[in-house]
Amino acid sequence: MRYYFLFLIVMLPVTWACSPPPPPVAEVRPSGKIESTAPPITVSAADWPWWRGFAHDNHAVGPNPPTEIGPQSVIWEAEIPGLGHSTPILLGDKLFLTTADERSEVQSLLAFDAKTGDKLWSLPVHEGNFMHMHPKNSQASATPATDGTYIYTLFMVNDGIWATAISLDGKIVWQKEAGPFRSQHGYGSSPLIYKSLLIVQADCDGSGFVAALDRGSGEIVWRTSRPSGNSYGTPTLANIDGQEQLILCGQDRLIGYAPETGTEIWSYVDLSVTTANTPQVAGDTVYASGGYPDHFVIALNAAGAGALDFTHLIWEERKKVYVPSLLVDGDFLYAFGDDGVAVCYDAATGDQNWKKRLGGGFSASPTVINDLIYAPNEEGEMFVLKTGAKFEQVASGKLSGAGFASPVIVDGRIYWRTSTHLYCLGPK
């Protein structure tokens, strides 16, 4: 979350628990042709520009990084002030990530030299007006995104979700409240870039929404209200049935929206009230998992319109994969459960190829490159597994800090943010 929002939901009492929820958020619809001031998108597969990488699937390209996870593979390390669960992004030779000092109530964006680990700059994006969150969440759980010109951040602050565009040299270009937000356990949904738009999902009691802002000006192009309820995942983009779609999971349903207008294309209901990860798409099949209070992993044929029914359900498994996002790789679907149990499914049938307890709890989402999967647990131990129908653990290792962020793999290097450090691992 996804950026990345990584925590286990438990129902804790909060001060507004007995108060009525606010009314639905005011919707906005595009009128006429949209004249955008957004810069062109100049990132490529050589970058890691947003949550889950260039193709939105946590698939890395290029040479394999080292499988030895430990001091022997560390090229450089940098201490990270404050706390954040967001995943770093990479643009050229620069890394960007968010963090928050929860004592002084400052949320910041940091920039590092990817070759040396030197800190280039630190920009306070918001100061004060922090909101309630779960102890296992952070005030900087949303992964930033870049179009190659600006860095975009999302923070929960001052009773809303605020989007900010920041120049590559660390200056605020614009800042806009995407919509109001009522926090139960915090926020962690990461921004999506689609053409000239910055897409923001914010599910909460009463006033949940999904919105699109112009990347150039911050003006709201469209905003669609969402069903009332608390979910914490990040949407994804896909082409389904020949149509570009925005896929969201939460509030007991999967929904496909038209990303240019925010209008609903299809929906599938009766899943789980709360989810905290990102759906995955392969062809016309959407893979999704949750959640709270019900557990599920499903494969859904999303080719269609309107209310989809059980005839669209390809397979279903009652397993808790709540916070880590699923990983689709060819014929296989990998599910790393919050409880530390990993399962490899046949992506087409849902049959189990293997099931293995790795140990510890999992919140980070796994990353795959070639025939290797890298998956950190919350204790900061990174597991390296072989892809395929037979379980094979190649290695595991631990560095300083807890592991709530997903590994970023580019050009044979692993960039991994723990609760205390940003690491670069690779051949020395």
Highlighted features:
428 residues; mainly beta; 34 strands; PQQ_b-propeller_rpt; Serine/threonine protein kinase
Task: Report on the architecture of this protein.
A hairpin with a 2-residue loop joins strand 28 and strand 29. The strands form 8 sheets. This protein has a 5-stranded mixed beta sheet with strand order 1-28-29-30-31, with no helix packed on it. The chain has a 5-stranded mixed beta sheet with strand order 15-16-17-18-22, with no helix packed on it. The protein has no helices and 34 strands. By secondary structure, it is mainly β. Helices cover 0% and strands 43% of the residues. The chain is globular. It has one domain: YVTN repeat-like/Quinoprotein amine dehydrogenase (Methylamine Dehydrogenase, Chain H), CATH 2.130.10.10. Residues 1-17 form the signal peptide. Keywords: Kinase, Serine/threonine-protein kinase, Signal, Transferase. Residues 145-334 form the Pyrrolo-quinoline quinone repeat domain. This is Serine/threonine protein kinase. Pfam families: PQQ_2.
